[in-house]
Please model this.
Amino acid sequence: MLKGVIHIHSTYSDGEFTLRDLREVYLDAGCSFAFMTDHAEAFDTAKLDRYLTECESLSDEKFRFIAGLEFECERRMHVLGLGAPLLAGTTDPQRVIRHIKNCGGLSVIAHPMDSMFEWIESFDSLPDGIETWNSKYDGRYAPRPGTFRLLNKLQERREGMLAFYGQDMHWRNQYRGLFNIVEGDVEGETLSREALLSSIGKGRYTAEKDSLHLPSNGRLPRAVLDSFAIAHARSTRRRGWIKTTKRALDRVGVRVPASVKARLRRIF
Model:
């Protein structure tokens, strides 16, 4: 089995870690791969070439970067292009999804807002998957049950559509305990973009967070979804209280110490 992470940002866009930093961070966490998804809007052709070159130069038999992009689309929708590091030239999400397919990558609608669900259901071009848990947007304790219900509804139209579990890594002190475990006997195999994309695309993985294991098809018992709803609501209230408190302090000119903000990012 191989342990790795999905939805990672570096200093090439708005992340705080360099690629070299990320390699060390995730090697220390026992990972063998990272699907990079820096924001497409941060790149021109020359910068993209440097990005691809560095991802490749920092990859070896111990660790593999799979270069990709996160595309900002209309109505604030974001689409991950796993293994698709080519600029799309469009903000239409369905055209972006087709672009990613043409690049040989996997398309994933990232952290979809609840208000987008009906719009996504109307798409003719469906993605390879939905990011059902984004530990930056949803918090570390539980995902939103609604994203799983959206996925299950879309699976009626596209069999084999997948649930993706992303860290959305940006900050040095961000929580990073959500991993993806690629299944199967991979001892002695060379880490390659093609092999990892193939395994992920076939759903040969599970998500792991502490003692929790989540399937690639996103099909969960009702009791689990109900427990997620309770935990997510509790986490949302806490995060909301923190944001309200910060805004109030900002209005009176009180700055929250960086060490406190860093600690809260690790907790929530």
